[in-house]
């Protein structure tokens, strides 16, 4: 039997299996567009504007529907009510982490973000405990961020008001804050090792948001050995892992079990205590992946939000002027902003919330799976079914946020100009899988942006009305476009 015949038989079997599974599953799953054999609904979805495709499907099938990304069914939850019901009201059932093949290949079920079951629970609980011990949410970490904010101000001052791309400079500050927690160290902003590390983060965020990675995730076994930018993603991860391993090795040589200095020390002490336990999750491999998770999430998301935020402030100089007026009135020029100021700065707080809402940094959240067979509304969803919670549909809900496509801080202000909270504000997700570093990120965004605007006028190189705020790429994430500006000292 020649190779062609074997391939035809195998493909026919796959198609028949798919058709049988589809007819069985579709009797129970929520409705959705009819999938094609093998490719599912991939040809019916615009991979370059995936969110718009989901919005149109929600108009046809309602807030709970099924799409096939390849041969696997994915239940999409669209709109605040459906997302809240899943992530918050029934959080335990929806707490599983779904498959994300391009990262699963690297993480192998370890770490915080892409692990499941007992490993996830133990690693997350331990990490939160250590972060609190390290000052997360306390004055100590605030002081550290304020110190780093002043370093950022000094670095921006050295640009001498000349045009510059702010990407790397903005990345240095949150990266150094994470370094202080994990490694108890920081880098100078000119350090080549830091700049190389930041380039890996930026590049991987761009790569993971491309259409190619969406295809890879749908057909990983088919595309893994073919050329594509997933290869570059893996290469960048390997280099990041080398850096982490160097830091861990240094800690092993200087570890004092009675005096833990940072996250790595706490983890290694726990490893030693549980070294005879066969069920322990505290292994060297899990330490490396957990650090990578914290490093990636803690650096790139905050950096991209800051970069996107400055672009929006360039586009809307009237908003920038109001923020700076509030900074002058509440903080002045004689001291640096602190977290206590936020309660007296409702407009600035609203602007930061609106930046996060508008940019919609991770449009469809990380994938979830249901941990057991469940009935959701009138539908049956089998254990292990992938779930997409469409955060775009929450952050851009036109009933909660009139004209959601417009950048408007008024979305978070009441009629008296006081800050107005919204349950629809979910840029960090919600429920059991809410971002571990949410508190840190909120603190960084407020302190870094207010420090920048206290010291500089943001000068665009083009007329503000000509500034395009459309993302460079929108897939897994909304990648901010490249631009330059001048930081003019006030």
From TrEMBL:
Pfam families referenced in this protein's UniProt entry, alphabetically: p450
Membrane topology classification: Peripheral membrane protein
Keyword Iron: yes
Residue runs in coiled coils: none
Keyword Transport in record: no
Domain of life: Eukaryota
Residue numbers binding heme: 435
Signal peptide: 1-25
Major localization listed first in the record, in broad terms: endoplasmic reticulum
GO terms for MF: heme binding; iron ion binding; oxidoreductase activity, acting on paired donors, with incorporation or reduction of molecular oxygen, reduced flavin or flavoprotein as one donor, and incorporation of one atom of oxygen
Listed SUPFAM superfamilies: Cytochrome P450
Names of required cofactors: heme
GO biological process, one term: xenobiotic metabolic process
GO cellular component, one term: endoplasmic reticulum membrane
Keywords carried by this UniProt record: Endoplasmic reticulum, Heme, Iron, Membrane, Metal-binding, Microsome, Monooxygenase, Oxidoreductase, Signal
Places the protein is found: Endoplasmic reticulum membrane; Microsome membrane
PANTHER family, alphabetized: CYTOCHROME P450 2C70, CYTOCHROME P450 508A4-RELATED
Family: Belongs to the cytochrome P450 family.
Name listed for the protein in its UniProt record: Cytochrome P450 family 2 subfamily C member 8
Organism: Pipistrellus kuhlii (Kuhl's pipistrelle)
């Amino acid at each position: 039997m020649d190779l062609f015949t074997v391939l035809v038989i195998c493909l026919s079997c796959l198609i028949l299996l798919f058709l049988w599974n589809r007819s069985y599953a579709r009797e129970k799953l929520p409705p959705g567009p009819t999938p094609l054999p093998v490719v599912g609904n991939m040809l019916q979805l615009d991979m370059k504007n995936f969110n718009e495709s989901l919005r149109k499907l929600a108009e046809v099938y309602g807030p709970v529907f099924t799409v096939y990304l390849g041969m696997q069914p994915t239940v999409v939850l669209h709109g605040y009510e459906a997302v809240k019901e899943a992530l918050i009201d029934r959080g335990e059932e929806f707490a599983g982490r779904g498959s994300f093949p391009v990262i699963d290949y690297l993480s192998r079920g370890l770490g915080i973000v892409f692990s499941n079951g007992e490993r996830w629970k133990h690693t997350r609980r331990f990490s939160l405990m250590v972060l609190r011990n390290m000052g997360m949410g306390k004055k100590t970490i605030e002081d550290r961020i304020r110190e780093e904010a002043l370093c950022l101000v000094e670095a921006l001052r050295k640009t001498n008001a000349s045009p510059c791309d702010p990407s790397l400079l903005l990345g240095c500050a949150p990266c150094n804050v994470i370094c202080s927690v994990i490694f108890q160290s920081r880098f100078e902003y000119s350090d080549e090792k830091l700049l190389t590390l930041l380039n890996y983060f930026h590049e991987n965020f761009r790569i993971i948001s491309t259409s190619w990675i969406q295809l890879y995730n749908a057909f990983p076994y088919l595309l893994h050995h073919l050329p594509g930018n997933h290869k570059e993603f893996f290469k960048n991860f390997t280099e990041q892992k080398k850096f982490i391993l160097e830091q861990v090795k240094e800690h092993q040589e200087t570890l004092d079990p009675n005096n833990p200095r940072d996250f790595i020390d706490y983890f290694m002490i726990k490893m030693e205590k549980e070294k005879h336990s066969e069920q322990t999750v505290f292994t060297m491999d899990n330490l490396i992946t957990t650090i990578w998770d914290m490093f990636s999430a803690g650096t790139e998301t905050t950096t991209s939000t800051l970069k996107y935020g400055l672009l929006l402030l360039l586009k809307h100089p009237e908003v920038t002027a109001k923020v700076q007026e509030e900074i002058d009135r509440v903080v002045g020029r004689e001291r640096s902003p602190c977290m206590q100021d936020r309660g007296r700065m409702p407009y600035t707080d609203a602007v930061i919330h609106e930046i996060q809402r508008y940019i919609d940094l991770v449009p469809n959240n990380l994938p979830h799976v249901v941990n057991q067979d469940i009935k959701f509304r009138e539908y049956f969803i089998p254990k292990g079914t992938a779930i997409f919670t469409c955060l775009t549909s929450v952050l851009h809900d036109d009933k909660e946020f009139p004209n959601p496509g417009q950048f408007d801080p008024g979305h978070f202000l009441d009629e008296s100009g006081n800050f107005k909270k919204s349950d629809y504000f979910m840029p960090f997700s919600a429920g059991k899988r809410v971002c571990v570093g949410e508190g840190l990120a909120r603190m960084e965004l407020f302190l870094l942006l207010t420090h920048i605007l206290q010291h500089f006028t943001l000068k665009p190189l083009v007329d503000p009305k000509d500034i395009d705020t459309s993302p460079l790429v929108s897939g897994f994430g909304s990648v901010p476009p490249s631009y330059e500006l001048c930081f003019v000292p006030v």
